[in-house]
Amino acid sequence: MAKIKYVLVGFGGIAENRVAKEGYACDKKRFKPLKNAVLTGATDLNPARQAAAEALGLKWYPSLDEVLADKAVDGVYIATNNRSHVPLAMAALKAGKHVIVEKPIATSVADAKKLNKLAKAKKLSLTVDHMMVNNAWNIAGKKAMAAGKLGKINDCCYHMEFAYGYDPAEAATWRCSKVEEMGGPIGDVASHCFYVAEFMFGKKITKVAAVYYPKTMKIKAEDGAYIKFFFADGTHGSVNAAFSELRGGLAGTLTNLGYEVYGDKAAMRGYGTMFQLSGYTDEPIAMRLEIDDGKTVTKVSPTKIQNIYSTLIDGHAKSVQTKKLLTADDAIHNLALCAAAHESAKKGGKVVRVKG
């Protein structure tokens, strides 16, 4: 079966190093070609990015219009600023291209629904880069929970807390200055915690209650948030998301990006599993997943490591090949969770039912 040909729209640093080099295996020294997908080209508003794209053997398109006019292109991966996701994805869908969009898929639930409706009407595959569900340790943790290794689970905490925005240049970025573009810890990183928790538990969050951290940073967005979430069956957990926490150095910061899941037999703790890493030996930290019964700590190791980006991309390509098209339903729900967390925090922590 022929591979699905993609063009990367937006060729900034993360797009080059994470999506192109890792996700599409353009770094041929480190990664093997994908089974179902191939990256053939790139475009960016900054023409200075052309040399970097061509260095990876990619065709450079001077504009999106030229990408969409190319009948050899099956799909696009959109890695531009958040506000442009919807108009670019809309244009791609109208041109008959399948679409992968970086998180968040939109900056509002209403816009995300419009995009999803168009993809379904055009019979095109649409998905968002919720890549952390492909982390091998998170998959192993999900299996351990399902196998009863922790006993009856009654609590959990997912957290992504680090320092970002103390530097004036960081404070000026969209992550710290543009809440309307999903900037701030809730939109930027609590969103990851929500979908990973739902993946590991195998059920959807239906209600949230949130409070903002004390305001100590000179950024327009919230410094952080504590969010209590509730599944439909009454099981609950929490999310800690913040840009205000120093966490020592690199090791302390990255190993802190993880979770604890608490059962009546044991607790399970993940270290470094909530980030952009896949678990290769040349990465800056070694991920860990441990089950602690109070007497013995047992390491949980995945059966195989997979790249979190390429797994998502290959899955999208396979959906095109098999005509089992993906939708943005989960992405819409994720946006609704973030919106509900903000609504709750502005109402002093009132429990808010998720609309979407």
Layout of strands and helices, then pairs:
Elements: E1 4-9, H1 13-23, E2 37-43, H2 50-55, E3 59-60, H3 64-69, E4 75-78, H4 85-94, E5 98-101, H5 109-122, E6 126-128, H6 136-146, E7 153-161, H7 168-171, H8 174-177, H9 185-201, E8 205-212, E9 224-231, E10 236-242, H10 250-255, E11 258-263, E12 267-271, E13 288-292, E14 297-299, H11 308-322, H12 329-346, E15 352-353
Parallel strand pairs: 1-2, 1-4, 2-3, 4-5, 5-6, 7-10
Antiparallel strand pairs: 7-11, 8-9, 8-15, 9-10, 11-12, 12-13, 13-14
Helix pairs in contact: 1-11, 4-5, 5-12, 6-9, 9-12
Q: Can you give keywords for this protein?
A:
356 residues; alpha/beta; 9-stranded mixed beta sheet; 6-stranded parallel beta sheet; 12 helices; 15 strands; 34% helix; globular
What can you see in these coordinates?
With 356 residues, the protein is an alpha/beta fold. Helix content is 34%, strand content 22%. It has twelve helices and 15 strands. It has helices spanning 13-23, 50-55, 64-69, 85-94, 109-122, 136-146, 168-171, 174-177, 185-201, 250-255, 308-322, 329-346, and strands at residues 4-9, 37-43, 59-60, 75-78, 98-101, 126-128, 153-161, 205-212, 224-231, 236-242, 258-263, 267-271, 288-292, 297-299, 352-353. The strands form two sheets. The chain has a nine-stranded mixed β-sheet with strand order 14-13-12-11-7-10-9-8-15. A six-stranded parallel β-sheet has the order 3-2-1-4-5-6, sandwiched between helices. Strand 9 (224-231) and strand 10 (236-242) form a beta hairpin. The chain is globular, with a radius of gyration of 20 Å. The model has no long low-confidence stretch (mean pLDDT 97).
